[in-house]
Design goal:
This protein is an alpha+beta fold. Helix content is 31%, strand content 20%. It folds into 2 domains: 137 residues, no CATH class; 112 residues, YVTN repeat-like/Quinoprotein amine dehydrogenase (Methylamine Dehydrogenase, Chain H). Keywords: Repeat, WD repeat.
Length: 304
C-alpha cells in the first residue's frame, strides 16, 4: 500500500469541482485504485488490531511510523475519493484503543492518531465533498502546534499561508452541522456514539455521521408540521419522532424509512418521546396534558 499511494491518485484536473461533479469519477477510480489497494485502505487497521504477539507489536511500530510520515495524506485522499472518510477516524480510534496497553508505542505516534480523529471532526465533511480540498483548504488551516502535518511540510508547495489568526491548537468546537432549513428542535446521539439524529421545524429528521459531520442519506420526511422530539432506541435500530402534527413516527435507523402507520392519539402537539430501557415501549408527552405509552412493535396505545 505504501508503494501504491501517491498525490492526486485519480489525476483530478480541477480542484474547484465537488466529487459529485466529476463526471467520470467512477472510471478514474477503476483505472487508478485497484481492488487490492481499495481493500488495503479500508481494512489495514483491522488487520493490525488482529495481531496478538509482542514480537509483532515491535515490528508494527516502525511500519506504522513509515506509513504516517510517508503516505498518510494520500491514504486520506483515497478514502475521500471512495466516499469513506469515516474510515479514517474509525481506524485512528481503533488503533488508539489497540495501542493504549502497549507502553512501547511512542507518545508521538499516539498523538498523531488522536490528531487524525480531530482532523476528520473538523475537516471531514469538506474533504468528503471535494477531495482536492484536503490539500488546498484543510491542510493550510491545521493548527500550528499540530504534529500531523510536520512530515509533509517539505512536500507541500504553493499552500495557502495564513498570515494572521491561525490557531495554535485544535478548537473545542469540532464541527458545525448544516442542512436543516429551519430551527433545530431536538438532537440525540445513537447508543454507540457514531450517529446523531436531529429534528427540525422544517418538518424533517436527519441522521449525521458523528465523526465526519456528514449527512447520512436524504432528509427523513413524514411529518406535516414541526418535529419536536427525536430519540434512538436502546439498540440503535429505531428512531421515534414526535411532532406538532400530533403524531409520532417510528423509523428504521438504517434505512431511514417509516415503520408502520403514524402513532395517533394526542390532540395537541407532541412535545417529548422516549423509549423504555428494553426498547419495547415508547412514552410520549403532549400539550394536551396527557402521556401515552405505546407498544414499540405494533404502534398501539397501551391502556388509557
Amino acid at each position: 500500500m505504501i508503494t501504491d499511494l501517491h498525490f492526486n491518485m485519480c489525476n483530478l484536473e480541477r480542484s474547484y469541482l465537488l466529487n459529485s461533479q466529476v463526471g467520470n469519477l467512477s472510471e478514474r477510480i477503476t483505472q487508478n485504485i485497484s481492488p487490492n489497494l481499495s481493500y488495503a485502505c479500508h481494512f489495514w487497521g483491522s488487520h493490525i488490531i488482529c495481531t496478538q504477539t509482542k514480537q509483532s507489536y515491535a515490528m508494527l511500530e516502525p511500519l506504522l511510523q513509515k506509513f504516517i510520515t510517508k503516505v498518510l495524506l494520500f491514504w486520506m485522499e483515497v478514502l475521500s475519493i471512495l466516499g469513506k472518510v469515516d474510515v479514517i477516524s474509525e481506524t485512528a480510534r481503533a488503533l488508539l484503543e489497540f495501542s493504549n496497553p502497549m507502553e512501547a508505542w511512542e507518545t508521538d505516534l499516539q498523538n498523531i492518531l488522536k490528531e487524525m480523529q480531530q482532523f476528520i471532526h473538523v475537516f471531514g465533511r469538506m474533504i468528503g465533498d471535494a477531495t482536492p480540498h484536503l490539500y488546498i483548504s484543510a491542510i493550510p488551516f491545521i493548527p500550528k502546534e499540530s504534529v500531523i502535518l510536520q512530515p509533509f511540510i517539505s512536500q507541500m508547495n504553493r499552500l495557502l499561508i495564513i498570515c494572521r489568526g491561525q490557531r495554535y491548537s485544535w478548537p473545542s468546537q469540532q464541527a458545525v452541522l448544516t442542512g436543516h432549513t429551519a430551527d433545530v428542535s431536538s438532537v440525540e446521539f445513537s447508543p454507540d456514539g457514531k450517529r446523531i439524529v436531529s429534528g427540525s421545524y422544517d418538518h424533517t429528521l436527519r441522521i449525521w455521521n458523528a465523526e465526519t459531520g456528514m449527512i447520512i442519506g436524504e432528509p427523513m420526511q413524514g411529518h406535516t408540521s414541526w418535529v419536536t422530539s427525536v430519540v434512538f432506541s436502546p439498540d440503535g435500530e429505531k428512531i421515534v419522532s414526535g411532532s406538532s402534527d400530533q403524531t409520532l413516527h417510528i423509523w428504521n435507523a438504517e434505512t431511514r424509512m417509516i415503520i408502520g402507520e403514524p402513532l395517533q392519539g394526542h390532540t395537541l402537539q407532541v412535545t417529548s418521546a422516549a423509549f423504555s430501557p428494553d426498547g419495547k415501549r415508547i412514552v410520549s408527552g403532549s400539550d394536551d396534558k396527557t402521556l401515552h405509552i405505546w407498544n414499540a412493535e405494533t404502534g398501539m396505545i397501551i391502556g388509557e
